[in-house]
Amino acid sequence: MFRHQGKNRTFRHNLRLASNLSLVAGIVNSVGVLTISTLTTNVTGHFAYFSKELIVGQYTKAIPHLLYIFFFFLGAFVSNSFIEIATINKKKYIHTAPMFLEIFLIVLVGFWNDWAFTATADANQIAYILLFSMGLQNALVTKISLSTVRTTHLTGLFTDLGIEISQYFFYRNHPNAIKLRKNIFLKLSIIIFFFAGCILGTLLFYQIGIKALLAAALLITIALTMDNLIFYYNFTRRKFRKKGTKNILNGFKKRTNE
């Protein structure tokens, strides 16, 4: 899910990545809105709010919206910087640092009230951290999927989905129709899992409050664990298969020499 890049990535890799992290983004989105009444997975609306406060002269109210935008950008910048550093140093696990940082930040906010902070006074700080973590996530999935998957907002997805469904009506017998169907299915999966995350986040919020974010951290942890288990399973299977093939060849050579 996380390890494969470029030609090594398959539709299945992108689907697993999209479904899991869209669920995470949905949880963060709903919990952010319910906790601090702020969008914490995208910055589109914050441009409008920033412009409004700027025009009416409410500069102190405009600054937080500008910082919301900046922290999402900063998260994307930091995420890709980690990836580039790992790539330069030829590290196998380029996704590890951004994912672990995202888990840490989401857990930090999940226990916000337990750190003796006041959620009302620190609403902006919560928004900054969550927007930064979503910038981390969006940049990571965009990078490793070659811009095929985006998980933190749906505006562009609905645009692409509308275009591709329209194309499918005209080119359903075209040789690329199979690829088009896969693209449509992938985008629908992202939308469905994002919505499911919003529902799950809302249900959990009314039960345990801001700690509902811990479910998002748990999902990322499970995704990383499963990715490692699948990798080592496939690695071990290939290793034993090569060993078995080698033994067969050695036995054949031995019988030939006799």
Automatic annotation (TrEMBL):
InterPro entries listed in its UniProt record: DUF1275
Residue ranges of the TM segments: 21-45, 65-86, 93-113, 125-141, 184-206, 212-233
Alphabetized UniProt keyword annotations: Membrane, Transmembrane, Transmembrane helix
Keyword Membrane tagged: yes
One Pfam assignment: DUF1275
Top-rank taxon, per record: Bacteria
UniProt protein name: Putative transmembrane protein
Organism: Flavobacterium limnosediminis JC2902
